Amino acid sequence: MNTPQQAAQLWLTHLAVEKGLSLNTLSNYRRDVNRYLQWLEEAQISDVRDVQSLDLEKYVADMRRGFAGAPLSASSAARALSVARGLHKFCLFEGLVDTDVAAEVSPPAQSKHLPDTLSIEEVAALIDAIPSGEHATPSDLRDRALIELLYGTGARISEITSLVVDDCTDCEGVLSIRGKGNKQRIVPVGRQALRAVETYLVRGRPSLSRGQSHALFLNKRGGELSRQSAWAIIKTAAQRAGIEKEISPHTLRHSFATHMLQGGADVRVVQELLGHASVTTTQIYTHVSAENLRSVWLSSHPRN
């Protein structure tokens, strides 16, 4: 069980069974660990006990230069290193190695990147670009409810598309959302989002349903709406609204967090709402708010 391939398979099984990671997360882990295994094979390292810290440093450098594909950004290379670290830590825990050679390897330095966000007015325009009146189609009602929920809760797209009808029945203004690692959190839902979901459930979903799925959001074939379809829905709404920014489902999550902080919410409350394990992850949005404050100051103060 000392070949990297055997250790990796054991680790992935552990993540799936013991840790309960989602299929999407496991797929990402498998992709990154397979790339690491390919690198080890080309480096002619066939035993996890032979891997040294210097090898991990070379691996990260090769990722940045472009090993088996396009060069990785600092953040992507850091994620690749994180996966390799997870594998080596598991090997130590299982007694396959005596030391964790990856523990002290530093990820590449990353430039601070502030998430793209929409203004409050742009979010309103995005939602209003989707018909909701008597001439709205079932797909229109679904799309409007989807965007209202994404922005209203700050949830990840996978968390919203995995909701079932019962999650939104008599929910009394809160949703129980299952996040990463199957961790559940309670998220408040505003009146407008709830109204959009109720309208969709009454006037839209019955026309889409084929009785085959309990998913809240359905595609035109009656199956669960995919993340890719949700992305396309938001892109189409942005085009209708005349929004030229490159946006995605995650843009609405970023906008939710930024607008909450701008409205006076405590960063730890926003951390809980987003389901972040560490407040450090949430604090990126305080930088966004600071940038917004500086922009307003520069345009308003007479002695800037």
Write a structural description:
It is found in: Cytoplasm. Belongs to the 'phage' integrase family. XerD subfamily. The protein is mainly alpha-helical and 304 residues long. It folds into two domains: 4-93, DNA polymerase, domain 1 (Orthogonal Bundle); 120-298, Intergrase catalytic core (hpI Integrase, Chain A), CATH 1.10.443. It has 13 helices and two strands; from the N terminus they run αααααααββαααααα. The protein has helices spanning 4-17, 23-42, 53-65, 74-93, 120-128, 138-153, 157-161, 191-208, 227-241, 249-262, 267-274, 279-282, 284-300; strands at 174-178, 184-188. The protein has a two-stranded antiparallel sheet. The protein is globular and about 70 Å long. The mean pLDDT is 86.
